[in-house]
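We append the chain.
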Amino acid sequence: MKRLLTAVLLLVVTTVAQAAELRAIVAKRVIYPGETLTAADLRDVAVRNPRPVSAPVVRRMSDAVGLVTKKTLLPKRYIRKSSLRRPFLVQAGKPVRITYSNSSLNISIVGAALEAGELGSVVAVRNTSSGKRLFGVVEADGSVRVQAQ
């Protein structure tokens, strides 16, 4: 009985110590979908009760600053990772540079983005010269790289 009580006490102390170390990021104000997060919008807080933090939440300020909200964020509420996305580099309806390259050929044309996309996402674009619809990957410079079909 004494060993059981000691084990339970040790488990409780360990759990409390771990909970004291947990941190999470919360919003300081109401933040609406489409807003880009800045450090001034956020606050780092200690997680007092780890049980409600079962969903993946943002733990460090650097993991949220510069990202865009997909949902409304309320003040003093933990920010779920699923509520954030990287900024769109390609905007639907806007001109975009479409590139194709292989070992001996590089082609670059101006087209129109048919959907918005972030770095690395696959988006549909239209070649404005031919009217053909293509799919490509958004590059870091905001262009869309297509493959041979």
